[in-house]
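User: Last request for today: this protein with zinc ion, please.
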Amino acid sequence: MEIPEFATDDGVERVLVVVAHPDDIDFGMAGSVATWSDAGIEVTYCLVTSGDAGGNDRTLARADMAVLREEEQTMAAKQVGVSDLRFLHYPDGRVEATLELRRDISRVIRQVQPQRVLSMSPERMWDRIYASHPDHLASGEATVAAVYPDSRNPFAHPELLADDDLEPWTVPQMWMPIRGGANTYVDITDNFDRKIAALLSHVSQIPDVERIEAMLREWAAGNAKMAGLPDGRYAELFRAVDTR
Ligand SMILES: [Zn+2]
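Assistant: Here's the final one, the structure of the complex with zinc ion:
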């Protein structure tokens, strides 16, 4: 499949990435984030949960796990040039696309005023069930609803305007890491090592470093092939949606 490259020099100065858990960004999007921060684009991360249900260590209190995972995500962000992280502190494993979550994401959209929002897909992917954790689907759905119509509608979540003085903001484009149906890609070859370093910052979640690195390399090479790039290149694939 030949994928036409989406124009990325269309005035994008700020990108907001909204995901469910620490490490979600680093699996599917961190290579692109590194490319954008290198180009001077400001990238903000919004984490719906702090990953307190992650890992297999039953001796660690869940509140301590949340603190640890926020630290790991902050380290991972640093690897790809991101220092602005917003944690919404929803409980891991129990995320629903509620009006409250839509409002909280809309608040961040109005604060950041991004030209591009990245989120997880709200659609279940049957070929890779791990990508479709229920928290991913719910945070994806809430983000789509926050992009359209909530954050642009002055009468949606009126407390944002009344209490926080946050003017409506229209996000012109949304990108989601959907492999089947992808219509754009970012060549991450030059930043692949930084993506690995970002992912490996999630020490509490990665028992087998070599296996995960090999897996990411295989995925990224497969993505590059789908994008029509030559052998030896790595890519991240997205479904880009015009949300103007
Ligand atoms: Zn996740």
